[in-house]
Amino acid sequence: MKKQKILAAVCAIFSAGAVLATAAAPAQIMPQEAIFVRRGGSEFTYIYPAIEAESALAGLRMNQYFLNEKDREALHFDGQTDNSRIKRAYQVMLNDGDYVSIIDTGMSYTQGDAHPLSWKHGVTFNVATGKQVQWQYMLNDETAPQLTLAKINAMLRQSGYALAPDFAGLQTLPQNFYVDGQRNIHFLFNPYEIAPYAAGIIDLNTHVRAQ
C-alpha cells in the first residue's frame, strides 16, 4: 500500500511536469509603424504588432492578418481624394500562452467633417496555431447558454449605455469581440451601430470567461 502511494505521488509529479513542459509561452509582441502620405497633406499612420510565437508558422499567420489589414487600408487611402488623417494602432488585451487577443483601434478625420470617427475591432488568435478564434469556440457546455442572442440583448439593455431609441435588439450574434486579461469575453459596438455617436464605442463585458 505504501509503495502504491509513493508510485502515485511520483506519477503526479511527472504528470505536472509534463503539463508545465508543454504549456505554450506568451507570444513576443513588438510595435511596427508604417506611414503613407498623399499629395495634398493626407496621411495614414498604421502602428501594428509584429508577433513572434514558439511556432514560426503560428507567428507567420498572426502577422499576415495585420499585414493584410495594412495593405487593405493603404489601398483604400490611395483611392481617396479628400484631405484626411487616418491613424490605426493596437492594444494587447490578452497574451497568456493560449490566446493573443488584440484590439485594432482606428481614428479618421476628413476636412470638413463635424467630428472624427473612431472605431475598435477585436481579433483573437490561438497562439499554438496562429489561427483566428471566434468567441463561440471559446465556450463550453456550462458557459455557452450564457451567451445566447436573447441574453446578450438583455445585457445590452441593462448595461447603462445610452442605446439608440429605436434599438430593438441585435438580430444576429455579435462578432466583434476581444478577451481581457481575466479571460472575460467583451463585445464591441462602434458608433452608430446600436447607439448614437455621443455614446462612443460600447464595450460590453459579458463576465463570461473564455475556456
TrEMBL record:
Record's keyword annotation contains Signal: yes
Keyword presence, Mitochondrion: no
Alphabetically ordered keywords of this record: Signal
UniProt cross-references to InterPro entries, sorted A to Z: DUF3298 (IPR021729), PdaC/RsiV-like_sf (IPR037126)
Domain of life: Bacteria
Domain named DUF3298: residues: 168-203
Cleaved signal peptide residues: 1-21
Upper lineage: Bacteria, Bacillati, Bacillota, Negativicutes, Veillonellales
Species this chain originates from: Megasphaera lornae
Database matches in Gene3D superfamilies: Fervidobacterium nodosum Rt17-B1 like, Heat-shock cognate protein, ATPase
Protein name: DUF3298 domain-containing protein
